[in-house]
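Lab notebook page, bench 4
Experiment: in silico fold of construct C2
Operator: M.H.
Input chain length: 236 residues
Purpose: comparison with the prior construct
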Amino acid sequence: MTQGAARLAPLNPQCLPALASISISKFSFTILEGRINPMAPDYCRFKQHYCLCWSLLVEMLSGLGSLLRRYAVPMARVNGERLVELAQGGDPDWAVRVGGSNSVERLLSVMENREEVWDLVYRPGQRYRGEGGTEAAAVRIQSCWRRHWARNAYLHHRQRKWAAGTIAISWLMHAQLGRVRKSLQESRRTHLDNYRIRGQYLAANWKHIQASRRTIIHIPSLGRYLSLTQTHPIIR
């Protein structure tokens, strides 16, 4: 049996396949606690009657017993004819796929008390009461804990990433604002230098301008405050 049967989840009763009634077989036998008694009269009669195709039934019986032990099924009544029909269905990969859910349903279809066995197999937590249940429970607990730890680590990583993104955006905005301020300061300095050059030119040529018949001077073009223009020695 593979680990597929260990991960079976309980199904909704509405999703369960219809359990068709199985006629009582004259070659039926009983499996107790997932183990077949090779000396039981009903099992010996079944084995003797189907001795020619016994090689096909060995894997089926092994998988059936393993399934019943894994789910701690106390008693299962097997329909011999139905088991032989299933074995002769021509499935060479049965031993490989015996742990799948479809294989489990096919194995349960050979039970005469299928409803009782079905309820036990799909009962929540029943897997951990059977053979290897302690190990399966430990694996499930560890996997749940690893999932919980990984999710917390992921959420913490997302929070740190969000914080780092916020800090990076704030720094970029601060750097951009600094560049804008520097650009404005450079522009202001250029304008002041231009105004200063104009003022120096005006001071150097003031006598010539004063001697001219017509001279228009636009005082605000110096780029100075009114209080400075009123107290400027050249203008005054």
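Observations: The chain has a mean pLDDT of 78. Residues 28-131 form one domain.
Next step: discuss at group meeting.
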